[in-house]
Amino acid sequence: MTHATTTTSYDDVLYPNYVHAQTHPDRLATLATLYGMQPTAVERSRILELACGQGGNIIPLAVAFPGSQCLGIDLSPRQIDSGQQLVNSLGLTNIELRTQSILDFSAENGKFDYIIAHGVFSWVPEAVRDKILAICREHLSPNGVAFVSYNTFPGWHQRRMIRDMMRFHTKGFADPAKRIEQAKAFLTFMTKAVPDESAYGRSLHEEFRSLSNVDEAYLFHEQLEEVNEPKYFHEFAHQAASHGLQYLSEVELSNLQFERYPPQVAGVLKNMEIIEREQYLDFLMRRTFRQTLLCHQEVTLDRQDLTSGVGKLRVASCLLANQKPDAILSNQPLVVDTPSGAKITIGDAMTKTAFMILTKAWPNSIAISDLQSQVRKELAGGKVVVQSQDEYQRDTQSLIHTLTHAFIVGAVELSTIAPRFAAEVSATPTACPLARLQAAAGGRVTSRQHRLVDLDMISCHVLGQLDGATPLDVVLNRLVTFVIDQKIALQKDGNVLSSPGEIRELLEPKLGPSIEMLRRWALLVD
Length: 526
Known about the structure:
Elements: H1 9-12, H2 25-34, E1 46-50, H3 59-64, E2 69-74, H4 77-90, E3 95-99, E4 112-117, H5 126-139, E5 140-151, H6 155-170, H7 176-193, H8 199-212, H9 216-224, H10 233-241, E6 245-250, H11 263-270, H12 274-285, E7 289-296, H13 307-310, E8 314-316, H14 325-329, E9 334-337, E10 343-346, H15 349-361, E11 366-367, H16 368-379, H17 389-408, E12 413-415, E13 430-431, H18 433-441, E14 444-446, E15 452-454, H19 457-465, H20 472-485, E16 491-492, E17 495-496, H21 500-520, E18 524-525
C-alpha cells in the first residue's frame, strides 16, 4: 500500500461526496450486454474506482453487493480517511480504500470486471491520463468494462475561455476559500458588465448561468485547478486504441436519437464509421462532456441491432407515475416527458399497458419475458392467454423494439440484476444501512438505485427508525417526540399544534404514505 506524503487541493477543498448513477456497474453491464458482450455478474464482480474521493460512489456498491470486491484509490489522505470512517461504521469487509497515486498502481492488484474513472481524466497531467488507460488495459478482465469521463471539444472551447478569465482574476489569491469568493465575484462583475444583446454577450451569459448555482467545490476543481485539458473525442479514442482498448458506447445513448436530425443528415451519420460519427455528433451538439465506456480491442461487438440483447434484461420505469388514470385508459396517444428531457409518444394499448405495469412495480424491475406475459394477461381482462409461437414472437419483438427506443430516450431503465429493494412496506420496514447512517446526519441519502435523494427533517428521522425490528406504532411515537423536541411547527387549519395528541393525530395518517414513498425511492430493503 502506497501512502501519499503531501496533501492535495482535494484535501483543502473536499470534492462533493456523491453517488453517480451513470457509473453503476450494472449500467455498464447492461450496455455491454446490448452490444453483444457477456459481462461478469455485478453481484460477484471486482470493482475498481480511480480517484474515488471520500468513497461516496464506491462504498454504496460494496453495501449493495456483499459478494463483490471493491477497491477505491485516491491521492488525498483526508478524503480516504473520511471514507474509511464510513466503511468502519458500516462494518464492510469487501472494500478497501487506499491512499495511492494512480501512477503507483501496479500489477499486484490483479484484474477487475468494472473500472470507474469519473471526474479525473481531464484534470490530471498527460502522464496520469496515459496511466489511467494503461490500467484499463492491464487490469480489465477479458469481458470487463471501463468508464472514463472527460471534458470535450468543441463545447469546451467557450468554457475554457471563461476558465482562463477566472484563473487570471484569481491568480493573486493563494487561499482556496478566497479564490472561490473571487471567482464568484468575477462572474457577478462580468454578468453586469457585458450586455447580452451581442452574440458574445449571449454566449457569456449562457455560461455564467450554468455556473451560478454550482457547488463551490465543483467551481474550484473544475474552473480553478491547474490542470483541465479537454480533448476531441477522436483524440481520446485514438489514445485509448494505442492502449489496446476500443470504444464501446456512451453511458447515455442519446447519440442514437437520429430522428432529431433531418433525414438526409441522419442518413449520412448512420453510414459513418463509429468514431467518425461520434466526432461529428459532438460537432452538431457542441458537446462539452463525455462519459465513455471502453473494452478490450479483442472483444467482438454487435452494433447492428441492440434489440437482440434487450430480451435478456430486466426493465423498470415510473414514466406514468404522474399521469391521470383517464389519460392512461383512453384511446388517445399519450405524449410523456422522460427524465432525460425527451418526449415519448405512447399510442398502442400494449405499450400503454406495459408502462402501466412497470409504473405500479416501480422501483422494482421485471424480466422482459415476464412483462410480455403480464401485458397479454392484462389486455385479456386477467385471463391467461394461450398464444401460438408466431403470435408470441411477434408480440415479444414488438415490445422489445418499443423498450429499446424507450431506453435510448431515457423512458425506461434496463438492468442485468434482480431488484435489491423492498417490493412492499412490511410491519417492521428495513431501510438500507447506508441510508440510515446518512439520514442521521440529515439531508441527502443514497438509494439502492445509486441515486441521491433529498429528505426533509421528518423523513430523515423516520428513515433512521426503520431498522427491521421497530413496529410502525413505535416509529410514530418516536416521531411525535422528535417533532416536539426539535420544535418543528406543524399546523392544522392555520393553527400551530402543540400537544402530543394533536401532533400524533396529524402524523398518524401520513406515516404509511411517507414510508411508501421511501420505498418507491428505493430506500427500503427486504
